[in-house]
Amino acid sequence: MAEPAEVDVRDLVKCFGALRAVDGVSFRVEPGETYGLLGPNGAGKTSIMRILAGLSPPSAGSARVAGLDVATHPRSVRALMGVVTQADGLDTEISVRQNLEVFGDLVGLSRRDARARADEVLAFFALSARADARVDELSGGLRRRLAIARALINRPRVIVLDEPSTGLDPESRVKVWEELAVLKDAGVTILLTTHYMDEAETLCDRIAMLHSGRVLDVATPPELIARHAGGGVAELRLERPDAPARQALRAALDALGARYREVGALFRVAAASGEEPPVPSVAGVRVTRRAANLEDVFLALAGRGLADE
Question: 61, 12 in Cβ contact below 8 A?
Fold first, then answer.
C-alpha cells in the first residue's frame, strides 16, 4: 500500500467573486519531498499556500496535511506546519531572540521550551551572534533566515515557503538554499513557490507548473526540461539590432515554423525533445547554442497557457 501523502490537494478551487484564482488543482507531496509550485503572477500559487496554511478557506475541493483536512482542523494543521510568507511579519521593535520566543509562546511552547528552541534555531541559522539585535538592524538576508527560523520553532513536519529568497543577494540566496537542504536531510517536507528558475531546479524534487489557476504539468525538473525544451535552445543576437533587421529575422524564423521568443536583445529559439532548434540563414546574426533549462520550460508553458485563454 502506498504511503499517505504529506500534502494531498484534490480538485481545489478558490474564487474571488467571478475570478477563479485556483481552478481545480490537484497534487500530492510525499513525505520528505521538496515540491515546487511555479507559474507567472496570477497563477494561483499564493492562494494555494494560504489555503494550506489555514489563512483562507477553499471554495471547493479539499486540502489535507498529514491526513488532516485544513478546512475542518486548521489549528491541528498549524501545529505541525511552519509557514513563511512573502511578508515576513517580524516584529521590528524587539530583538531577534524575542521574536522567536514570543512565537514559541503563540504556538503553545512553555517559556522554558521556547527559550531552548530559540537557541537551537539561532545556532542552526548562524544567528546566535545577532540574538540581541533588533530586527530592523538586520540585512534582508538575515531577516529572511530569521523568518524561516521562526517557522521551525514548533519542529514542523511540513514547511511552506512563499518566495523564500525574493530580494536576497546571491550569497544570501545560496545560504538559504543550504539551510533548506539540511532541513530536507532531516526529513522535513517542503512546499515552496518561487520565481527563480535556478532555485526551483536546485531545490525541488518535483514541480507543478501552474497557469491561470490550473496545473499544466507535474514532473521532476529534468523530466520537464526533456518534455518541453529537451532539444536545446539557440540564442540569436543581431549585430545591428535595428527595426528592419529584427523584422527580417522574425520573418525568417516564421518561415521555418520556429518557436521563439524575443527576450531583450536575444531571439530565443526552442525545439521539441530530440530535435535541434531551427536557425535561419540570415546575415549579421550571432548564434549561441546551449542546453535547455527550467526557464525555457517556464516560458514555453506560460506561453501555451496564455494562448489557451
Answer: yes
Element containing residue 181 per DSSP (H, E): helix 170-185
Q: Note the Cα 246 to chain centre separation in Å.
A: 34
pLDDT at 89: 83
Structural domains of the chain sorted by starting position, each given as residue range(s) with its CATH number in brackets: 7-220 (3.40.50.300), 231-291 (3.30.70)
At 261, the amino acid letter reads: R
Q: What is the pLDDT of residue 1?
A: 47
Q: Which residues contact 227 (CB under 8 A, 6 or more apart)?
A: 217, 219, 273, 297
CA 240 – CA 31 distance, rounded (Å): 53
The answer, yes or no, to whether residue 66 has pLDDT greater than 90, is yes
Which of 218, 236, 237 has the alpha carbon at shortest distance from 228? 218
This prediction has a pTM of 0.85
Q: How many CB atoms lie within 10 A of CB 271?
A: 20
Q: Which residues pair with 219 in a beta bridge?
A: 207
The angle that helices 294-308 and 221-229 make with each other, rounded to 10 degrees, is 60
